[in-house]
């Protein structure tokens, strides 16, 4: 269970697990640990599930920049999470006929990445080991802001494209996390298209600024709706109790 079997203290927030194939939006301002939280969440979960894989697509940073940021937070790097950056996407697009390229091809490439088999090492015995291929169960898109900029459309047109895109991801059974950077976390059109919303933000407690996590919605899941303090420790991110 990707939530209940991951970050320390997550059982304070979630009482049951979101269904596989959910589309979950992670919203918040800059510096609220959105990227690190999602990488740490998947890394901790995959640590106990060696036959599963995830893909992290970053349109914000290079692969090296993202991994350096993760390491600086004390989060171990795992080969079970494949990092794909915008340079990799552009390399894929260059092999296509430019006269046929359309902005929504970025969405098609994400779908292709989300279902392409990844290698899994399967030791059956000390003298008998082989590599198998499995489709990833989890995908992170970092971020919605950058993806919308690449698509170059807005309003009802982009909402229809996203609705179709999310439907195809759900049909494939891939649990998808999408980062949306915003200081205004009030209702947005994207909120009605997704299954879950996790808000990450900051609040002032005395003379200190503290980070928090709060589940605003999660379909078919029992969870708390209170804000919880999160803390980056030398051993990764931890949830340490309610924000009072």
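^ structure tokens above, recovered residues below v
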């Amino acid at each position: 269970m990707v939530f209940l079997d991951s970050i320390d203290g997550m059982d304070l927030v979630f009482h049951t697990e979101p269904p596989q194939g959910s589309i979950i939006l992670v919203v918040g301002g800059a510096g609220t640990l959105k990227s690190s939280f999602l990488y740490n969440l998947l890394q901790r979960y995959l640590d106990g599930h060696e036959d599963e894989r995830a893909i992290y697509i970053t349109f914000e940073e290079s692969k090296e920049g993202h991994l350096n940021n993760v390491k600086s937070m004390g989060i171990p790097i795992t080969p079970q999470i494949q990092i794909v950056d915008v340079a990799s996407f552009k390399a894929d697009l260059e092999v296509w006929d430019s006269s046929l390229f359309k902005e929504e091809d970025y969405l098609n490439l994400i779908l292709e990445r989300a279902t392409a088999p990844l290698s899994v090492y399967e030791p059956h015995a000390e003298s008998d080991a082989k590599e198998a291929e499995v489709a990833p169960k989890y995908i992170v898109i970092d971020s919605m802001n950058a993806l919308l900029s690449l698509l170059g459309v807005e309003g009802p047109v982009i909402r229809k494209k996203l609705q179709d895109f999310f439907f195809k991801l759900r049909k494939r059974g891939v649990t998808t996390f999408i980062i949306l950077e915003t200081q205004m976390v009030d209702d947005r059109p994207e909120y009605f298209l997704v299954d879950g919303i996790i808000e990450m933000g900051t609040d002032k407690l005395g003379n200190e600024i503290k980070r928090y996590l709060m589940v605003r919605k999660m379909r078919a899941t029992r969870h708390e709706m209170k804000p919880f303090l999160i803390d980056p420790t030398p051993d990764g991110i931890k949830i340490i109790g309610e924000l009072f």
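The chain has a mean pLDDT of 88.
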